[in-house]
Amino acid sequence: MAAFDLEEQEQISQIKGWWESYGSVVTVVAVVAALASVGWQGWNWYKGKQGAEASALYAVVQQAAGEHNAQKAREAAGTIIEKYSGTPYADLAALLSAKVQSEAGDLKNARVPLAWAAEKANDPALRSLARLRLATVLLDEKAYDEALAQLQAPADADLAARFADLKGDILVAQGKPAEARAAYQAAVDALSAAVKQEASALREIAQAKLDAVGGAQ
Question: For 18-64, how does the pLDDT look when each residue is reduced to its tens digit (9 = 90+)?
Fold first, then answer.
């Protein structure tokens, strides 16, 4: 028994010595780890709260869209963009509100959320879609150079044909048939390999536009 007591005392002495050397470091690490855990949980709670509040506001935008209430949609979307811009709902609200404003004939207020989404949307694909829709609004306003500027940035691959087709429309409006032909040809080429019915329909439209400006030269 005495031998065991001596071994235990030796182990205890070793532990005490180790703790005296490294105990403060272990304490700091433990505190940092605990704070990090609390911080992570707090961040997740905050993100969840943000998402829930943004979701509720997006439901308001959807309801307003169904009611064709442009002001209600604009105000709710504006709140989401202002307070919850880091959530996916901000992207969706911007696009939906712009659609409602455009349908109401209010192109000025349609431009605002589209301009935000074109630059700051969280989803790259939605940024491309916002640029496409913003260019369409600018075309309707005869702001041709601004519209073309929105189509210069690389588009999402799935939207490349629509970018090229809209670019052709703008160039036609500017009286530039040769450049419009090149744009329409790019749209036709991009859609040639597509098998979806929608893509086929878009290709026929683009081809008709190409033929209207003189076909391939």
Answer: 666 666 665 655 555 555 555 546 544 545 676 789 899 999 999 99
Is 150 part of any domain?
A: no
pTM value is 0.71
User: Which residues contact residue 83 at a Cβ distance below 8 angstroms, ignoring those fewer than 6 apart?
Assistant: 53, 54
Q: Which domain holds residue 71?
A: 33-122
**DSSP class per residue in 53-110:** HHHHHHHHHHHHHHHT-HHHHHHHHHHHHHH-TTSHHHHHHHHHHHHHHHHTT-HHHH
| Number of neighbouring beta carbons within 10 Å of residue 158 | 13
Domain count across the chain? 1
Kindly report, residue by residue over 110-155, the tens digit of the pLDDT.
999 999 999 999 999 999 999 999 999 999 999 999 999 999 877 7
C-alpha distances in Å from residue 120, one per residue of 133, 136, 156, 214: 15, 19, 15, 39
Does 100 fall in a domain? Answer: yes
As a whole number of angstroms, the distance between CA 106 and CA 97 comes to 11
Q: Angle at CA 179, nearest 5°, toward 177 and 182?
A: 110
The answer to whether residue 146 sits within a structural domain is no
